[in-house]
Amino acid sequence: MLTITVIGLGQMGGNMALTLKAAGFTVTGSDVFEPARSRLAEQGLAVVTPEALPASDVYLLSLPTSAHVREVIEHSPGLLKLAPKGSVIVDTSTSDPVVSRKLAEKVIAAGLQWLDAPVSGGPKGAASGKLGMLLGGDTATIERVNPMLEAMSAKRTHVGGPGCGHVVKLANNYLCAAHLLTTAEAVAMATKAGVAPAACLAGINSGSGRSAVSEVNFPEWVLSERFDSGFTTGLMRKDLRLARDAAEQLNIPLGLLNAVVDAWHANANQPTDSDDFNHIATPILARATQAEEK
Predict the structure, then answer these.
(1) CATH of the domain at 91
(2) Known catalytic residues?
(3) What residues does the 6-phosphogluconate dehydrogenase NADP-binding domain cover (predicted)?
């Protein structure tokens, strides 16, 4: 069995750590925040401070941004110096592909192995071992950590070398963000025309306009008004900015991407960064109801 250190014990990292522990792996968790360490320790996970990381076969990172990933790898003193030769750094964060590729070069030059493995499925998927994973790295590295990946995920797609997983993750999140806007507008239009939102979604989901947003997000979180997916508006905004930056660096004009980025940043208070990301549909749907009342 691989020995695994999970760095970043938020909703995603904490649940992944517990899932791997339940699968029989030797797992240690670490986080800069003491409350996060205490919460996981209370659930039976061995935890350490960032200064006391153990020698492990795999260092699994679940962090907010590329800057945090770089900090863990390069500084204080960083995994480049702390990790045993041959160990694998797996970045499950949604990171900047440019940064990831530069870090991957340094990791490999230091005698370590790299795999970017951004995930989808939210905290629920992390807790159940049913995540989706996009893998960027060498086939041999994937084969080495495959038992861990199988315990964490229901679906794994190898999309290329280092950084490619993060490229495809940004493309996926761009489409998800766009679908939330377009589906909300379509449902709002139908509502204004006298069609119940659930009936409109049933029709859309029987045709070519369906998407994961219309099939899952709207009934699960929007129409139910639960808004507890575990993914925030702030994180989606960050991912959209990364997607726009990637397009600009490639000198690709993507007018619709820019429109989606602008729409998600149009009002910082509706929704706020801390709100569930599905809340982006709320003001669109509300406008249809308000128009009907007038």
Answers:
(1) 3.40.50.720
(2) 169
(3) 3-160
